[in-house]
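REQUEST FORM: STRUCTURE PREDICTION
Request ID: SP-0412
Submitted by: Lab K.M.
Chain count: 1
Length (residues): 239
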Amino acid sequence: MMVTVRYCGEEYRLAPQGRFSIGREADLVLDEDNPFLHRVFLTIEQEQGLWWMSNVGSHLSATALSREGGFQAWLSPGGRVPLVFPAMTVWFTAGETTYEFEVIYDDAPFQAVEGAFPASGAALRNSADETIGEVALTPEQRVLLVALAEDMLRNFDRGAGSIPRSTDAARRLGWPITKFNRKLDNVCMKFDRMGVRGLHGGPARLATARKARLVEYALGAHIITQADLGLLPGRHPAV
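STATUS: Completed
RESULT:
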């Protein structure tokens, strides 16, 4: 039952009896210069025969998705999720930077069934107990998501990317900021009605972080992919 964490081409094999930490001053140092990142944000350890990932931070949340796309969990402070799939991708945002790493589990107890889940363009599962149905986006809603996630889509192998300011994203699309904000409100409302958490203010999530949560969810559920970069206006070639 070997568990391995992969980040930026490096692998960390976890000891069954130990606790593996992820953060600014941890076993896996994601970014020692980002003051918005907790010294220790996430931990992974084995307990009663299961591996668990826990959020031990005070204000950041993470999105965890099985590689096949059938499971997605939003891990808020104090929460934890069992690692039972062969591969899970984890996203979270600290300040203006969004990070990504993978957790690989040899001989995982759960295996995906081929063809059991919707293809790209469908929202899947938002948490361990919420199943989300298919989402229909207008062309402008889709290109808004792509503009917000552009840096992550172009730099998947880097393990980190930035979320643009609203003014920069609006300029990238050639929209007035009023139109951008209106479209952003509409997209957030659409996903919120579907049950996606973290798109409004609350004790664990400020409303100003909704763009980051939106990107994490859209990438995790494969609602947008690198193939969608071609939807953006010129200036940058698609990957």
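NOTES: The chain is about 20% helix and 25% strand.
Reviewed by: T.R.
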